[in-house]
Design a protein that fits this description.
Elements: H1 5-21, H2 26-29, H3 34-51, H4 55-70, H5 79-93, E1 100-103, H6 105-112, H7 114-120, H8 122-134, E2 141-145, E3 150-154, H9 163-176, E4 181-185, H10 194-202, E5 212-217, E6 225-228, E7 242-247, H11 254-264, E8 268-272, E9 280-288, E10 291-301, E11 318-319, H12 324-339, H13 344-357, H14 364-370, E12 376-378, E13 383-388, E14 391-396, E15 404-412, E16 415-418, H15 423-426, E17 431-437, E18 443-451, E19 457-459
Parallel strand pairs: 3-4, 4-7, 7-8, 8-11
Antiparallel strand pairs: 1-10, 2-3, 5-6, 5-10, 9-10, 12-13, 13-14, 14-15, 15-16, 16-17, 17-18, 18-19
Helix pairs in contact: 3-4, 4-5, 6-7, 10-11, 12-13
Length: about 475
Amino acid sequence: MHLSAIRMFKYIRHLSCMALLLPMSAAQAQTVSNDDASRIVKALTDQLTDQYPFPEISAQYKAALLKNEAAGQYFQLSEAALGNKLTADLQATHKDVHLHVWRDTDRYKALVAPHEHHRGNAADFDAELEADRRGGYGYQRVELDAATSTAYINIPGGFKSSQEAFEMAASAMGMAAYSQHIVIDLRHNGGGSGQMGRFLASYFYEPGNEQFYLNGFYKDRSKDIQEWTYPFVPGHHMPHAKLYVLVDHNTASASEGFAYAIQQLHRGTIVGDTTAGAGIAGGFHALGNNLIVFLPVKMVTAPNSTVGWEGTGVIPDVTSTGPAAWDAAKRLILKDIMADTTDHVGQAAAQWRLEDDSSTSLEGDVLKKKYAALVGTYNKGEVTITAVKEGLQWNRFENGKAPQHYALREVKPDVITILEMNKEYGGPTCSRIYLQRDAAGHIESLIRKTIMTAGTIYTSPSPYLRSGGIAK
C-alpha cells in the first residue's frame, strides 16, 4: 500500500494545527506507559532493521532511537507526542521524506483488524469512491491549443491505480492523441501509485517498444522489481510527440518517478522547480497505542543503477519557479515550432505568439502621439480610428448593427493589435492591422489579419484605404 508523501505531511500538519487550536482529547492526552513506549520503539527498530533498504542507515536509526530510549526521552508522553518525537529523531538521524510516525486511530484499527474495519466502513469506502469520481481521479482538465498543436493535461491530484482511474487517464490521453506537443502538469501532485506513471509513459512509445522505466530494490535483493512501460494502452500512441513535464517542490513520490523516468529515458523535458525528493516507496505498519509508521521499503532508481531521486529530488532541465513553469514550457514549444521549417502554418502561428509575448504594449497617450496620422475614416466610413482618453480606438460600423469599439495597442512598429476583436476565433489578441507606408514613410493603407483557432491566418481581401487619401 502506498501513500503520497505530500498528502501524508498535509495530514500531519493538520493534526499539529488542531493541537494548537483545541484542547487535547482524552485519548490524545493519555500518557503512554513506559513499557508500551519501549515496545513501540522495539517494533519500530525491528521493522527498520528487517525492511529498510539501506542496512547502514537502518542501523543508525536503531542506535539513535535506543540511545534516546535509554535516556528516557520516550517516556511519559501522550500518543501524539510520542509519534512526533520519534519522527523528529528519525529525521534528525537521516532525512527520509517518507519515514514518519503518527497517531491515527482509524488506520491503526484497519491495520490490526482489517476484516472488521472493512465491514464497518463501507460508508467510508463509498464516500472515498464518490470523492475520487468527483475529483476526476486527480485529472483536473485537458486543454487543446490547435494553433500550436499543444495538449495541456493538468493532474494535480494523486496517482490512483483503480480501473476507473485508468479509464480517466486514457480519456485524457485520448483528447491529446494527435497533438504534436504534450504538456503534463504534475505541480502539486503528491504521488500515489507508480502504475499510473508507467501507464502514462507507455503512450509515448510504439507498441512493442517497451522501455525499462524504473528499478525497485529491497533490502532482500531477491525481491527486486524491474518496472517497464506497458505493451498495450487503450487509444493512440504518441511516439513522436514532444513531451514536457511541469514539476514543483510539491511533486513527490510516484509523480516524481514519472518525471525522473522520462528524464532518464531522454523522452521529454522537465520544467519547473526541484521536486520533493521522496524516492523510497513503502507502506503502513501498526506500532501500538494507535501509532502507525509509514515505512519506506523499496528504493526506486534509474534502470541498472542504485541512484534515484531520494533526498535530491528531480532536477529540472529548465528551471522556472512556481506558476511561471507553464509559460516557460510555452516558450520552449514556440521555439521548437519555429525550428521546424516544414510546418509553415505552425511557424506563422508561433511567430504571432512570440510577437505577442515580446510586445511593446504601447497604448494611451504614447500610442496617440506616435500614430496620430492613423486618426481618420477608412473604406468610406466602414471603419474609423479615433483618439479617445484611453488612447486610439478602432470603430466598426455595419448596417443594422450597433457600432463596435476596440482599443488599439502596439505589438511592434507598424503592427497594432485590435484588442478583443474577433476573440471568438483566436483569443483577445487575434486581430491586427499592419500599416503600409509609401516611399516617403506616409501611411497609405492598412492590412487587417486575424489568426484563427487552428493557427491559420486570415488576411482581409482588400486593404483599408483612408478617405481623403494618404495621411501625412
